[in-house]
């Protein structure tokens, strides 16, 4: 019976440790999620800024085409350098878009993990019910042990 009690205490401590681990994991996931959300917002702002600059550059090019002679424009701007810069800008935009989609995937995975943790987490009512059942079983076992010891002692005296 003492082994059973120790076993039950060990199980209860295991459940308590698991609960603490889950609590720590959920806090860590939530903190990571907030950090990732901040990074996503920064990336979105950078993307919007780059898109605005690209739109401004396109408007400028359209205005220059209407006002300036293409030969005069070619002498003022190096075409190869402009093309290289535009390619780098386009590559950077694609990198930012892939980073944003990667962050969104990570955010979704984090939310799924948090949902799983919440589903597996025992609430206080379940723990109270479990504790009450454990105490009842424990008290019943102790009473049975005491009764058995009294019977055995009484039988020993009679012999």
From TrEMBL:
Coiled coil location: 33-106
Keywords: Coiled coil
Domain of life: Eukaryota
Ranges of residues in domain DUF4795: 1-159
Protein name according to UniProt: QRIC2 protein
Source species: Loxia leucoptera
């Amino acid at each position: 019976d003492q082994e059973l009690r120790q076993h039950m205490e060990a199980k209860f401590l295991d459940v308590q440790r698991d609960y603490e681990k889950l609590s720590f994991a959920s806090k860590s996931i939530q903190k990571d999620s907030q950090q990732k959300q901040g990074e996503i917002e920064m990336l979105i702002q950078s993307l919007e800024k780059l898109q605005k600059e690209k739109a401004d550059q396109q408007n400028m090019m359209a205005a220059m085409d209407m006002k300036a002679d293409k030969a005069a424009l070619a002498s003022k701007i190096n075409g190869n350098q402009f093309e290289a810069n535009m390619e780098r800008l386009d590559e950077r935009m694609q990198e930012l878009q892939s980073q944003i989609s990667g962050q969104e995937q990570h955010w979704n995975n984090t939310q799924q993990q948090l949902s799983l943790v919440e589903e597996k987490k025992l609430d206080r009512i379940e723990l109270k019910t479990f504790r009450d059942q454990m105490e009842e079983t424990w008290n019943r076992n102790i009473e049975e042990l005491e009764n058995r010891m009294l019977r055995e002692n009484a039988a020993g005296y009679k012999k």
